[in-house]
Amino acid sequence: MRMFRRHLLPWIKVLVCQILALALVLTLLPMLPDDLRFGPGWVLLFEGSVAALFGLALRLPRIFFPIQLLLPLAILYSDVVPAWAFLIAFVLFALVYWNSASEQVPLYLTNAKAAAALAELADGSGAKSLVDLGSGLGDVVLHVARLKPEISATGIETAPLVFALSRLRVWLARRANARIVYRSLWDEDLSAYDLVYCFLSPVPMPRLYEKARREMRPGTLLVSNSFIVPDVTPERVVAVEDGRRTQLHIYRMG
Ligand SMILES: C[S@@+](CC[C@H](N)C(=O)[O-])C[C@H]1O[C@@H](n2cnc3c(N)ncnc32)[C@H](O)[C@@H]1O
User: Fold this and answer.
1) Which helix (H) or strand (E) holds 252?
2) Sequence-distant (≥ 6) Cβ neighbours of residue 247 within 8 angstroms
3) For 136-191, what is each residue's pLDDT tens digit?
4) Where are the alpha helices (DSSP H) in the chain?
5) Among 27, 99, 127, 248, who pairs with 195 as Cys (CB 3.0-4.6 Å)?
6) Which DSSP letter does residue 188 get?
7) CATH domain 112-252 topology
């Protein structure tokens, strides 16, 4: 059920948004005066914009906004797009979804409410240092660093483009207590942190928990967004009041 909600439901919503937007545009088009007839490219761009707005109303993740916007145009012009454009798109996707095949961890992002809940949790537990293992675009690092200046926030990331963008964001934010490091999470020494955060997938969780137990200091916290450690009962679960009903599973090291 969780896999359906996370992976299939967004694409079903995309389809619904596109159909609704197309129906709306087809209804509106005949009402336009003759001198306001636009070419098919503009009509589809408008249709994509409407679908993208519907997607926002349906709380689709932000990554779907450009997808919805450009999808109708991509379908219409698929035969005139030059081959090199597909190569560039492929390379860009590879640089973003670098870890999807090897680690079976795709890219999806912690939302602002969950990041704020994590910042409160870190503060409440007295943590002075936090690491986000697989830090994506750096949202968690930036949120925590901004909300809790006394906490030093580190992000660890290996997808090249994602790493570069998050580094840029952190540099632009000019937060002395935030940093992003290009390193595999498996090579990071977790004993340096009071709180270790991850939002990965079910696959690495057993191995990650073993690593955490070996390296983390007693009393420190491993917090997993959404994905549980099989056969281990968390000390507690924080339910975040966001659109996707995020759960933060908290494991205290013994
Ligand atoms: C689901 S995203 C979470 C992003 C971020 N933590 C957040 O919550 O917004 C998982 C991230 O982990 C990264 N990742 C996967 N395996 C990794 C590894 N071995 N070392 C470092 N990063 C990794 C992926 O590239 C991806 O950006």
Assistant:
1) strand 247-252
2) 225, 226, 237, 238, 239, 240
3) 999 999 999 999 999 999 999 999 999 999 999 999 999 999 999 999 999 999 99
4) 2-3, 9-28, 40-57, 64-76, 83-96, 98-102, 112-124, 139-147, 160-173, 205-215
5) 127
6) S
7) Rossmann fold (3.40.50)
Q: Is ligand 1 within 6 A of the CB of residue 188? A: no
Ligand 1 within 6 A of 135 CB? yes
Question: Residue 93 is encoded by which pair of tokens?
Answer: 């996707």
Task: Give the pair of three-digit tokens for residue 205.
Answer: 């969780």
Q: Are 28 and 58 in contact (CB under 8 A)?
A: no
Residues 74-93: pLDDT tens digits? 887 777 777 787 788 878 88
How many alpha carbons lie under 13 Å from residue 221 in its C-beta half-sphere? 25
- Domain ranges across the chain: 2-80, 112-252
> Mutation test of ligand 1: which of 97, 98, 103, 144 has the most ligand atoms closer than 8 Å to its C-beta?
103
Which token pair is 196? Answer: 């270790």
**Cα–ligand 1 centroid distance for 226 (angstroms):** 14
